Amino acid sequence: MSQCDVAIVGAGAAGLSLAWRLLSPPAGVPAPSVVLVDAPPGSLRPPERTWCYWEDGPGEYDDLVTATWDHLRVRAADGPATTRSLGRFRYKMLRSPLFEEGLRPRLTALTRVEAVVERIEDRHDGAALVCRTSGGAPMSVRARWVFDSRPPAPAPARTALLQHFGGWFVRTQGPVFQPDVVELMDFRTPQPRHGLSFGYVLPTSPREALVEYTEFGPSVLTEQAYEAALRQYTQDVLRLGPHDVLAREQGVIPLTDARHAPRAGRHVFRIGAAGGAIRPSTGYAFSAIQRQTRAVAAAVHHHRTPVPPAAYTARHLAMDAILLRGLATGRVPGASFFSRLFRTVPAERLLRFLDGETHPAEDVLIGLRTPILPILRTAAGLPFLARAPR
């Protein structure tokens, strides 16, 4: 049986970020002993992925990012484009393999094991992970505190959509991309009957980019359907010309107004997506994960009970719940809603809103740029909806 101060389950963005912060204490503060339990290679280990986020100036992971941009563009379904400077912000792209490789030198004191966690036992003096290795051998880890970053089980919700996508890393024969502008939402894609769809282009050079087809909707597509949508978008919309597909990625992010309790026991906590770090209206999570793990590490270093803080305010979550319901019912047409928002709201304010950092007066100003009657009608009906299993 292994014994430690902190055990972390899962080696994604949340698990690795927390491990690094725990092992980098302030001067004069001893680092806790940390064990990271990651699933063996296979279906339980998440695939490689791309995280995007924005920051005001330099950040902690700037030496690991693939690219940064200072402009965003949103294209309406009928073609008009809105290109906005991000002002003091920078939009950043981080690939999970580079993130893990870059953090490795900072995690030399980490004990890392490969095993499947079968259950977590909360005890009076700590918690125990009951695990099984890839070879089938049982093992256990005892810890003062346990942080579980595994994807959460579906929780009861009034509205539950999925942000699902397929992406190609492409290289074109000629220079077709604008390297300083992210195509954040390009609505020149066929819109589904329920929800919305858009293209997403992250250029890393004039000839290379990650191109994604994304939908907000009730269910995912087949791999063949994502490929067909990407062919249509790259050929008929972007008109890339001859190009090579260097790599592919596919993923799904839950967009739901379910409640996420950060505490799973006296000594067991949830972080990352399991702890409510995903912004329900957009799917962004990386910045919230950094805020969450920073606060948890500080609590551990100063011998406080390390309850992960709420990722977003109740006010912002209520606004997200209204938007999700509006999109799910079709009362709020997604393509025109987001196009208008980016056209009429200053980019810095909108990014701070998406990070949950705007003040109530700013939220009112943003709300005035939305379709007010459908939003009010949706808000009026929400209290009468039951939270059902999804």
Automatic annotation (TrEMBL):
It comes from the Bacteria. InterPro entries: FAD/NAD-bd_sf. It holds the Pfam family Lycopene_cycl. This is Lycopene cyclase family protein.
